[in-house]
Each structure stands twice: as structure tokens, then as C-alpha cells.
Amino acid sequence: MQEVTGVLNMLGLIAFLFFWSPAHQEKPLPELKSFIAEFRKTLQSDDKLLGQYTYTLREQEIALDSKGKAKKTETKVYQVIRGVEEWQTYRRLISKNDIPTSDKELAKQDREEKERVEKELRKREGKSESRRASEKAKADREEQETMDDVFDMYDIQMVKREAIGGHDTILLTFKARPTYKPKTGDAKILRKIAGRAWVSESDHELVKLEAEVVDAISIGAGILAKVQKGSMLKFERRKVNDEIWLPVRVEATVNGRMLLLKGINSRSVAEYSDHKKYTVDTILKFGDPVKKPPPLN
After folding, report:
1. How far apart are CA 171 and CA 157, in angstroms?
2. Residue 98 pLDDT greater than 70, yes or no
3. What is the distance between the alpha carbons of residues 85 and 78, in angstroms, rounded to a whole number?
4. 170 CB contacts (<8 Å, ≥6 apart)?
């Protein structure tokens, strides 16, 4: 009996030394500066990425009472066809509050969309290629200036490693440096927002974001709109077809007002699903059953 006990104790000691040896301890976190530099390279508008796909979009608008409880909910489901440019996007309403859109209404939407596109094309015929290129270059330059401003402004800290949906991510926290003076309009707004971001360790893509308004945001000196402290934004992405990260859920809780009079207290949820790569051979089957997005981990 003593010999058996001795063997078991020896096996336990070997297991302890094996699993607690330096080779099996959790690997250290990446170096912050280089990780952020790689993360920044991946950042681009999801609108541009979605331009390669068709998808189903479910939008839910929930009006809240003073205690944050739902008092009215409206749900709309769209089939979305994207183009390279924003004006080429077609959002085809296929149901409202779980009631499918009638064939007559679908035909009307398609007819109006065709007319809209033809009108837009005629308007763009008068714009030269050089002017379009100049406008794009200006937009790209302004986007880069904003990006530079935001990354200079935020104090970013690396917290820990977390697994989300089968991917190792690095949890980062961000908040504006108190003494930093933003140069661009977007950064002036973003300096009043702080939060957390989960970034894929392998390919440095944004996986999840939670942001909160930490100081009231006024637009047009508060005349056009004002977003109160405590308003929240949550954003989740998933790797589709093991090739590209795309948004799957965006949730915003906003308390504020518009035009000095209209109070806003609402929660909005947008869910993206059924992403399909768009090619010239894509066949769009309108009216297919809407698929629920799988649960997020």
C-alpha cells in the first residue's frame, strides 16, 4: 500500500512540475507599442468591407421610459445590397414588426430604387474623373488626419488576454489624455468617450468594443443635439468564411435631446447576418427566410 501511495505521490509531483514549469505558464502579453501599430493598420470603415457582401440587417428601435424600461419597440428587417460607394447601397425592407412586406410593396421598393439609381447616375455623369479622384483623395486625407489625432489623444493600456468566439484577443482600455488638445472635429467628440476594445492577437482585428460617453457631447453648441453622460455603444464583429472580420451586432443606448426640445431615451440594436460574398455571379433570392445570427460568446 505504501509503495502504491509513493508512486501516486511521485506522479503528482511530476504533473505539478510539468504544468507549472515556465514553458507551460501563460505567455506574456505583446509589446504595447508594436501591437497598437499593427492594430491601426487593420482599421478601416466597415462600410467599405461590407461593400463586398450582401447580408440581412435586423434593426430594432426601443423607446425607454425614465427608468430605462422599454415602452415601445419597432423592428425592421432588410436585405441589403452594397456597392463600392455608399449611394449604391439598397436596403430592401422585407418585414416590419414580424409582418412580411407584401409583394406589391416589394415591387414598389424595387421600382423606386431603380429610379433613384438612374437619377444618381445622370447626376454623376457631369462630374469628371479627376474631380471624383480629388474628392476621394480629400476624404482619405481627412480620415487619416482624424486617425492620427485619435491615436495621439487616447491613453491606451493593455490589460489581459481573453478568448472570444475561439479567437485569442487582447483587451485594451482607452481614455483621452486630459491635457491633449484635439485638432480634428471627430477627435473633439471622441475625447469625451472612453471604453474597452478586444483585438484579435493573431491578425490585430477589432473583435469587440464597449464605449461610454464620460462627458456630455454637444453638437452645434447643444442646439442641434446633446448626448448625455452614460450613453453607451457596444460593437461586435466576427470572422466570416475565415477570411474577413465583419460587424454582427451594434447596440447603442442614448439619452439626450435634439433641437433643444425633442428628448431621446432609446436603445437601438442592429444585427447583421447571412453574409454572402458579392460577385457578378451572385443570385439575389429576395424573400428567403431570415436567419438568426448565431449567439456570440
Report:
1. 9
2. yes
3. 19
4. 29, 30, 35, 158, 159, 160, 161, 162, 198, 199, 201
